Amino acid sequence: MEFLVRQENRMPPLPAEEASRIKAAEREYAQQLRDRGILRRLWRVPGTRTAIGWYEADDATVLHEVLSGLPTFQWQTITVEALATHPQEQMLRPE
User: Which InterPro entries match (predicted)?
Assistant: First the structure.
């Protein structure tokens, strides 16, 4: 299943070393998700601390497990939309 995920980061001000460590762990985890084919694309919303991601997971439970593993999960406000293929896109797919 494909999901559109909006993640608003509300991480509080932290000591520089701790914030750096958490951000590095977040980048590493995101790369692991990319390598596994779960995180397909990631965009930044300009002027905000919000990211929008395209994720693929077997189901919503698997996606929840993935998102709750984010090092910044406790500070995230996350909204998820399951995606279905539009009929127009189905017409464009080669047989």
Answer: Dimeric_a/b-barrel (IPR011008), MLI_dom (IPR026029), Muconolactone_d_Isoase (IPR003464)
